[in-house]
Write a structure and sequence with these properties.
The complex is a heterodimer of chains A (about 160) and B (about 625).
Chain A: H1 11-20, H2 27-38, H3 43-52, H4 57-66, E1 78-82, H5 86-90, H6 93-104, E2 117-120, E3 134-136, E4 139-141, H7 146-155
Parallel strand pairs in A: 1-2
Antiparallel strand pairs in A: 1-3, 3-4
Helix pairs in contact in A: 1-2, 3-4, 6-7
Chain B: H1 5-15, E1 22-26, H2 29-33, H3 36-50, E2 55-59, E3 71-74, E4 81-83, H4 91-100, E5 109-112, H5 152-157, H6 162-168, H7 172-182, H8 194-203, E6 210-215, H9 224-231, H10 233-247, E7 251-256, H11 261-276, E8 292-297, H12 307-314, E9 338-342, H13 343-355, H14 357-361, E10 371-378, E11 384-389, H15 394-401, E12 411-416, E13 422-425, H16 435-440, E14 449-454, H17 459-473, H18 479-496, H19 503-518, H20 522-526, H21 529-537, H22 539-546, E15 562-564, H23 574-578, E16 584-585, E17 593-594, H24 604-608, E18 614-616
Parallel strand pairs in B: 1-2, 6-7, 6-9, 7-8, 10-14
Antiparallel strand pairs in B: 1-3, 3-4, 4-5, 10-11, 12-13, 12-14, 15-18, 16-17
Classes of the chains: A alpha+beta (about 160), B alpha/beta (about 625).
Chain lengths: ~160, ~625
């Protein structure tokens, strides 16, 4: 993840966005790439995308705020998603979310003060056979108990 | 046209027998979440330490989530044995006894894969006769957990792309007629006849047509599409190509959820390999048919599972449904005729052309043909995937395959079809599972997620859960869905917090009627189903919440009261310390008391107590 202190977007990023001009329907992939680069969608980046892809800024903003995946604020180094699917719900998923919130002293949708963790809402992670589950970055953890949540959070650098 | 026959024969020769022991680890998302990575590391470590000459391979999920991590051990000239519940600590014994000593560890062995060539081991059942698989018919998922999903050769030797070869030698209209004759209906929810859908797209005028695969499996509780994508990605590609040939499309899109990173990785790899083998791209197998497939990664919106919302999302817009008509078959992606089916449907297509229309039509019921893959989750003893012929009863699926309820508790309901489906009680367990029977009892097939609920599940809370979901996921375009889900959720919140009134039941029913008849897309039209079905079968629970201000299952926090059992309390003060509102009084070594006026029923005392002295009613 690049640290963005300046208001200027870097050249590499601009080049990546230019490439999207060639493809139809590339607004969402462009936003996804932006988020991969910066960890969120900086306003300047969205403005640049609007310019390059010739899509009104209002539409870029509309798409960015429609989908759950996109964030307009920076997030922590690790993103935790506690599954709120049906299988997890009936197997105690809400208690797992509470435990994560308690451990990190933040609520779902927030980021810890040290920017290490963010908790993000998610519908269903599709690992229902191991409910309750959560996902940290791209790794899925199943058969959770409060104790396991402790261990897992402690083990993350 | 180039035939794959020779290649397939060569490959069969190559894979015919193994020359040294082979250990295969089940590494689908579930397996990895259960620790398959650590088992793999432990295996590499132990194999190196012992200096064994062993191949270590990776496969996907075989469907026994309750037995993850699954590992298969195969020795030359012996049938492979599949183990369940393998942990890093069990690796050494498995290697020493089975690989070195050729004596499978019986207590961890789930079954063996008999192949007719080798003498089976004694005292291990075959897969077909094992508890979990005896009642299953694995067709669509036959390769899941059996082949490497990252190696196209293993797909080819299991007769992969044979359906495509046959199709390319037939007229497109004949292909559509065959799909019609097979009786295949869409596996994504509504159960629309696939052949008819293809016919519309085929007949539509257009210089350019598209194939779309809906892999936006958003139903909470369903994961069969993920398992197919992770375990048998080529089957989906093959099905899409056949559909493309039939309707006259040369380009396809797979719209897959961002929450499925492993599925995306395996799909990308499969597409690359198919291109290398001349099975995707220009002039497939040197025929006149060209087809290309792109992957579009979703950005997190349940409504994109609705086909027109999905098309908007592929086009880079907000995923909001379109007004119909025109239907996508006439005016779909970028205004061109488009055919959209889901993952399981395409996997069925490849199967139908490989094994034949008549064979396929012989499975299932009169109006629902073939098999259906269900995901068994919730309070069921054996969670996992189960594939059964259409028409199997829910009781057979839940009890004969799923082993009944966890901890021998009492069954209360099974939720089928996700947020669009309904909750069915015990007396509906004997209906055959097919599209039409489920609609009749107020549920629907949906994508096939079965969430089993026991006596500790509150049905009003379940309805509230689904409405919370639908309300959050409503795209906001049409008023009945946007406002209807919000109002319904408000009412359900009221009821579960003890502030409901009897008129609320009528209000819910009226709202449901309006939403069903006037919402723009399936999401709004079916969002009331969880409420209607729980009202239909579990009305007494609603009444208990409203009239008696009581939650019979002990779930709804606001309706519970906490007290302390004087006989069990030893006065340790743990509960008083845990109480966030200082509602608990008492001194050390004396019985404590909870003041119900102050208590916010958070349950912290109950968790803190080590002596089970806190009572909740």
């Amino acid at each position: 993840m690049t640290n963005r202190n300046s208001n200027h977007l870097d050249i590499k990023f601009k080049k990546m966005m230019e490439d999207y001009k060639e493809h139809k329907g590339s607004l969402i992939p462009a936003l996804q790439t932006t988020q991969e680069v910066y960890g969120y969608l900086p306003k300047e980046a969205m403005e640049y995308i609007s310019q390059v892809l010739e899509i009104p800024f209002s539409e870029v903003f509309g798409v960015a705020t429609f989908y759950a995946q996109f964030r307009l604020q920076p997030r922590g180094k690790h993103v935790i998603k506690v599954c709120s699917g049906t299988a997890c719900h009936v197997r105690g998923g809400p208690h797992i979310l509470k435990e994560v919130e308690k451990q990190l002293h933040i609520k779902s949708g927030e980021t810890t003060n040290d920017n290490k963790f963010s908790i993000e809402p998610v519908a269903c992670l599709g690992a229902c056979g191991l409910a309750p589950v959560m996902m940290i970055d791209e790794e899925t953890f199943g058969r959770l108990t409060k104790e396991r949540v402790h261990q897992i959070l402690d083990s993350i650098e | 046209m180039r035939s794959l026959k020779l290649l397939r024969n060569d490959l069969k020769e190559k894979y015919h027998s193994i020359s040294k022991p082979r250990i295969t680890i089940g590494m689908g998302t579930c397996g990895i979440a259960a620790g398959a990575d650590k088992v793999k590391d432990a295996l590499y470590h132990a194999v190196a330490e012992k200096g064994l000459d062993v191949d270590i391979e990776v496969t996907s999920c075989i469907g026994m989530c309750y037995k993850e991590v699954n590992v298969e051990v195969a020795l030359p000239d012996y049938p492979p044995v599949v183990y369940g519940d393998i942990t890093p600590a069990r690796v050494t014994r498995m290697l020493e006894e089975h690989v070195v000593g050729n004596t499978p560890v019986l207590e961890w062995a789930e079954f063996q894969l008999e192949n007719g060539k080798h003498t089976p081991y004694q005292d291990i059942s075959s897969m077909e006769s094992s508890d979990y698989y005896f009642h299953q018919t694995r067709e669509v998922t036959s390769r899941c957990g059996r082949i490497s999903p990252e190696n196209i050769e293993e797909y080819l030797i299991t007769d992969g792309y044979e359906g495509l070869e046959k199709v390319l030698m037939t007229q497109p209209q004949k292909v559509i007629d065959d799909i019609k004759a097979s009786g295949l209906r869409g596996r994504g929810g509504g159960g629309f006849p696939t052949g008819l859908k293809w016919q519309f797209a085929h007949d539509a005028e257009g210089d350019k047509k598209y194939i779309v695969c809906n892999a936006d499996e958003g139903d909470p509780g369903a994961f069969m599409d993920r398992s197919i994508l992770e375990g048998d990605p080529h089957a989906v590609l093959e099905g899409m190509m056949i559909a493309g040939y039939a309707i006259g499309a040369d380009e396809g899109y797979i719209y897959v959820r961002a929450e499925y990173p492993l599925a995306i990785k395996r799909l990308k790899r499969a597409i690359k390999q198919a291109k290398e083998y001349g099975l995707l791209g220009d002039h497939i197998l040197e025929s006149s048919f060209s087809f290309d497939i792109h992957i579009k990664v979703g950005a997190g919106a349940f409504v994109c599972g609705e086909e027109t919302a999905l098309l908007n999302s592929i086009e880079g817009k907000r995923g909001m449904p379109r007004l119909r008509p025109p239907f996508p078959a006439v005016k779909g992606l970028w205004g061109k005729p488009t055919n959209n089916n889901n993952v399981e449907t395409y996997a069925n297509v490849a199967l139908i052309f490989r094994k034949g229309t008549e064979w396929y039509a012989s499975i299932g019921t009169e109006n629902s043909k073939g098999t259906k893959v269900f995901s068994l989750t919730g309070k069921i003893a054996k969670t996992g995937l189960a594939e059964v012929p259409m028409g199997t009863t829910l009781r057979q699926i839940i009890y004969d395959i799923g082993g009944g309820i966890q901890e021998n508790k009492r069954f209360k309901a099974v939720q089928i079809g996700g947020p669009s489906g309904g909750c069915l009680p015990e007396d509906k367990l004997d209906i055959p599972v097919d599209y039409d029977s489920l609609i009749k009892v107020g549920a629907m097939m949906g994508s096939g997620g079965l969430v089993v609920m026991d006596e500790a599940t509150c049905m009003v809370d379940v309805a509230r859960y689904f409405l919370t979901f639908s309300q959050a996921e409503s795209c906001g375009k049409c008023t009945p869905c946007r406002e209807g889900t919000t109002r319904m959720l408000e009412i359900l919140n009221r009821i579960t917090s003890g502030e409901g009134e009897m008129e609320d039941i009528e209000r819910l029913e009226r709202l449901a009627r309006v939403m069903k008849t006037t919402s723009l897309c399936g999401l709004g039209q079916t969002a009331p189903n969880p409420v209607l079905s729980t009202l239909r079968y579990f009305k007494d629970e609603y009444i208990a919440h409203i009239k008696d201000k009581r939650c019979p299952s002990g779930v709804c926090n606001h309706l519970l009261t906490y007290s302390i059992d004087a006989e069990k309390c030893i006065g340790c003060t743990a509960c008083a310390k845990a109480c966030p509102v200082n509602a608990i009084t008492g001194t050390v070594k004396k019985t404590h008391e909870i003041n119900p006026e102050i208590c916010i029923t958070c349950g912290a005392c109950m968790e803190a107590c080590h002596f089970d002295a806190v009572i909740r009613v």
